[in-house]
């Protein structure tokens, strides 16, 4: 199934921008028709669990907000050299904007609100917001999307309340599609990256890899009572999925450190041999452009 060896007929790298654009347009047609069903109040096990849920969905809100802003800013920049790709970025940003709306509604349903960012999260997004190079922004965003979709899939496995499950299912389904979409964005942007800038980009990749795994520690303090994902499991899942994605999409030329993988009991060869999540997501999305029919897999 690896698209890394170029043999997969449905590998994500074969999709032209026009294909992604058609897909995004179809998704956009009915996006706003989908509504959250919030009639059944949630019986929380404790106030601590509810507070952890508010923290969890606040983190999601900030990710959507940042994704929306970066995508629309990039769209303006890209419009000068690839209008079709710019339109993809714009529609993609709209999807994040829609998620942001749903999360605002959901947060108020659980008696929470959008809160100011904590110190670590704030620093993270400030640094990201300051990134100027297009390749850095798209690489960072792809890595954010990957840990986002990983977290949602893991949380979905444990979620029981129908409203929580619906919210997580929507996010899981769409973020899974956003990962291969961002692979496409990165592939296009890298075509314009000069070879001499690759070393810098490579450093960013390795730095982010470690920082994002580290972020799972901070998020456990705030959100574990809700999502029930232990640190060990979440950090290992981040290491696995951030590693696997780039091993499969090997033409992007980012490769996780073997030492780091080994620290989580992961092996490069096994990750290469396991199914390519990007291809699975694209196939699922293609099989059902009506979003309701996409099969969402919990981790
Ligand atoms: Fe999103
Ligand atoms: Fe996304």
SSE order: HHHHHHHHHHH
Q: What's the story with the biggest beta sheet?
A: none
Q: Are any ligands bound, and if so which? A: fe (ii) ion
Count of DSSP E strands? 0
Estimate the strand proportion. under 5%
Helix content: 55-70%
The oligomeric state is single chain
Beginning-to-end CA distance, first to last residue: 19 Å
Shape descriptor reads globular
Output the number of helix runs: 11
Q: What is the structural class?
A: mainly alpha
> Mean pLDDT, rounded to whole units?
88
Low-confidence stretches: 1-10
From the alpha-carbon coordinates, what is the Rg to the nearest angstrom? Answer: 18 Å
Written account of the structure:
Helix 5 packs antiparallel against helix 6 and helix 7 (198-227) runs antiparallel to helix 8 (231-248). The protein is globular and about 55 Å long. By secondary structure, it is an all-alpha fold. It has helices spanning 17-29, 47-78, 83-109, 119-130, 134-158, 162-190, 198-227, 231-248, 258-263, 268-273, 277-287.
Question: Which SSEs are present, and which pair or pack?
Answer:
Blueprint: H1 17-29, H2 47-78, H3 83-109, H4 119-130, H5 134-158, H6 162-190, H7 198-227, H8 231-248, H9 258-263, H10 268-273, H11 277-287
Helix pairs in contact: 1-3, 2-3, 2-5, 2-7, 3-6, 5-6, 5-7, 5-8, 6-11, 7-8
The structure holds fe (ii) ion (FE2) (2 copies).
């Amino acid at each position: 199934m690896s698209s890394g060896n170029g043999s997969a007929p449905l590998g994500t790298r074969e999709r032209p921008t026009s294909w992604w654009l058609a897909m995004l347009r179809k998704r956009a047609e009915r996006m706003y028709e989908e509504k959250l069903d919030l009639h059944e109040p949630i019986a929380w096990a404790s106030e601590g669990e509810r507070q952890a849920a508010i923290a969890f969905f606040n983190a999601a809100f900030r990710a959507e907000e940042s994704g929306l802003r970066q995508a629309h800013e990039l769209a303006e920049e890209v419009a000068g050299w690839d209008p079709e790709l710019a339109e993809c970025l714009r529609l993609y940003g709209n999807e994040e904007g829609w998620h942001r709306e749903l999360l605002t509604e959901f947060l108020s349903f659980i008696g929470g609100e959008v809160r100011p960012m904590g110190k670590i999260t704030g620093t993270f997004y400030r640094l990201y917001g300051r990134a100027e190079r297009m390749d850095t922004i798209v690489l960072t965003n792809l890595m954010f999307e990957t840990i986002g979709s990983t977290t949602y899939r893991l949380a979905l496995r444990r979620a029981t309340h129908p409203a929580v499950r619906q919210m997580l299912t929507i996010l899981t389904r769409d973020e899974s599609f956003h990962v291969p979409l961002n692979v496409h964005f990165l592939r296009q942007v890298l075509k314009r990256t000069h070879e001499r800038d690759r070393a810098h980009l490579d450093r960013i990749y390795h730095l982010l890899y470690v920082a994002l795994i580290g972020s799972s520690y901070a998020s456990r303090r705030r959100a574990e009572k809700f999502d029930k994902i232990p640190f060990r499991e979440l950090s290992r899942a981040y290491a696995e999925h951030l590693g696997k994605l780039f091993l499969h999409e090997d033409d992007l030329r980012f490769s996780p450190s073997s030492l780091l993988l080994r620290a989580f009991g992961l092996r490069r060869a096994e990750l290469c041999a396991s199914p390519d999540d990007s291809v699975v997501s694209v196939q699922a999305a293609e099989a059902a452009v009506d979003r309701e029919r996409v099969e969402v897999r919990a981790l």
